[in-house]
UniProtKB/TrEMBL annotation:
Superkingdom: Eukaryota
Organism of derivation: Aegilops tauschii subsp. strangulata (Goatgrass)
Keyword annotations: Membrane, Transmembrane, Transmembrane helix
GO terms assigned for molecular function: antiporter activity; xenobiotic transmembrane transporter activity
Pfam family for this entry, one: MatE
Signal peptide range in chain numbering: none
Family in the record: Belongs to the multi antimicrobial extrusion (MATE) (TC 2.A.66.1) family.
Membrane topology of the entry: Multi-pass membrane protein
Keyword Membrane: yes
Protein's name according to its UniProt entry: Polysaccharide biosynthesis protein C-terminal domain-containing protein
Compartments (UniProt record): Membrane
């Protein structure tokens, strides 16, 4: 549905441009459309892979699915605070760097730009911080989402979240390199490698979950493996085009990245959403529960089924009389929400 909606919008835009007579080779319009199509496809690949992961874990049982759901929701909320701004900022800074002062290395002939090296170093640092926070603070994050240590899903959810934390550095680097490629006006290369990485996850999921009988641990390992495969392939491709790290660290420029206020805006928005009252009514068809939304494709959570389950379970645990929607009522009735 998401991909169909995006393609429908692009098709409508093309039709409008054609009717106005402004579409011909060499215009900005056709270039933007050609850049947008692979980017839209790339955004559709990941939710499809997560949907397949949901289906495999769902066969293990309601407890396993709920445990993975709460872990994915926490991972997505924390990662989106920093990852999405880094993706956008890297795109604009690399494009600006290319237009102003891009130079080639005197021996390799590759592009040598401070914006590329700075984005990669910053991504590695943010990814490491996220991994440590998720790994060491998994219990705290679960408590914030309403899962107490005596809950039957606490142990498996904490294990799943701790394992997924190991993939945070690869996830951040992957998004940063995607932003760099977009700055190069190349959206096809990231889509190719994202597709290959998610294909590896599709192969590993049934093998590790059922073949080696690892359960949700196997699901976490397959996701981590696919993230590192994508990151390594993207870094390998980028290394052919640009110098990844300058010879001297003082050539890095973090000022532009750190001065950007987008990360702080998202952090304030998220913190406000999970304030004193974890359940806030935003509008009539939309509930924010512990910082994430029950609406599909909302910004607070991923568009997969895990996010809605995590929100519902958290709401059930804190407000046993409130279950928004039939799907959440089904989860509430499983007894996972009951306090001891």
């Amino acid at each position: 549905m998401f991909l169909s909606y995006r393609l429908c919008n692009i098709t409508t835009t093309i039709a409008q441009i054609r009717s106005s007579g402004s579409l011909y080779p060499g215009t900005v319009s056709i270039e933007l459309i050609l850049l947008a199509l692979p980017a839209v496809l790339g955004q559709a690949i990941d939710p499809m892979a997560q949907l397949m992961e949901t289906a495999y874990i769902g066969k293990l049982g309601a407890l396993e699915l709920a445990s993975a759901g709460i872990g994915v929701a926490i991972f997505n909320i924390l990662s989106k605070i920093f990852n999405i701004p880094l993706l956008r900022i890297a795109t604009s800074f690399v494009a600006e760097d290319i237009s102003k002062n891009a130079s080639k290395h005197y021996t390799s002939g590759k592009l040598e730009m401070p914006s590329v090296s700075s984005a990669l170093v910053l991504a590695a640092a943010i990814g490491t911080i996220e991994a440590l926070a998720l790994f060491l603070g998994s219990g705290l994050f679960l408590k914030l989402m309403g899962v107490s240590p005596v809950s039957p899903m606490y142990a498996s959810a904490r294990l799943f979240l701790s394992l997924r934390a190991l993939g945070a550095p690869a996830n951040v680097i992957m998004l940063a390199v995607q932003g760099i490629f977009r700055g190069f006006k190349d959206t096809k290369t990231p889509v190719l490698f994202i597709g290959l990485g998610n294909l590896s996850a599709v192969v590993l999921l049934p093998l590790l979950i059922y073949g080696f009988k690892l359960g949700i641990t196997g699901a976490a390992i397959s996701t981590i493996a696919s993230q590192y495969i994508i990151a390594i392939l993207l870094m390998w491709s980028l290394s052919k085009r640009a110098v990844l790290l300058p010879p001297k660290m003082d050539q890095l420029e973090f000022g532009g990245y750190l001065k950007s206020g987008e990360s702080m805006i998202l952090l304030v928005h998220w913190w406000h959403a999970i304030g004193k009252n974890p359940l806030n009514s935003v509008n009539y068809d939309h509930w924010y529960i512990n910082g994430c939304s029950t609406r599909p494709n909302s910004y607070g959570c991923s568009s997969d089924l895990f996010a809605s389950m995590a929100c519902c379970i958290s709401a059930c645990r804190r407000f046993s009389s409130f279950c928004p929607g039939s799907d959440c009522k089904l989860l509430c009735n499983t007894g996972l929400h009951k306090s001891p």
